[in-house]
Amino acid sequence: MHQLKSGLATLSSYPMAWHIRRINDGIIETVFDGLVTGEEMLEAAAERIRIGKVQNVTRFLLAASKMIAPRSATMDVFKIPTIVYQEKEVDRATRIGVVAPTDRDSGWIVRFYEDLCYTRGWSIKICRDRQNAIDWLTS
Length: 139
Known about the structure:
Elements: E1 2-11, E2 14-24, E3 27-35, H1 38-55, E4 59-68, H2 74-87, E5 95-99, H3 107-119, E6 123-127, H4 130-138
Parallel strand pairs: 3-4, 4-5, 5-6
Antiparallel strand pairs: 1-2, 2-3
Helix pairs in contact: 1-2, 2-3
């Protein structure tokens, strides 16, 4: 695995971290850990798209099991598939596997993101764990 990019910030008393790495020849993984603001989700999305285009990768794993998502992230998450993906011309053949947060209060964000992506034509699946997501992405 090669780490490609990471971000680190602090909001309130929760540390936030995300990093992007290539986990095999065809998947780029974004790992979220801790409180992740909407702005940080937008930043991570733009960076994974950029890396995917440079490396000709259209399979993405979003490992959000340790993510805490504030309600204030709603509009920024809305912008990812409705604006960012459009502006960056993300290939409709792109597949996105998402490992849902274990934090009950944060699960809504991946269901919201899934609905936004799906209704706009991208293939996305929320998976119970990382291996399930990798298996789906490589099938």
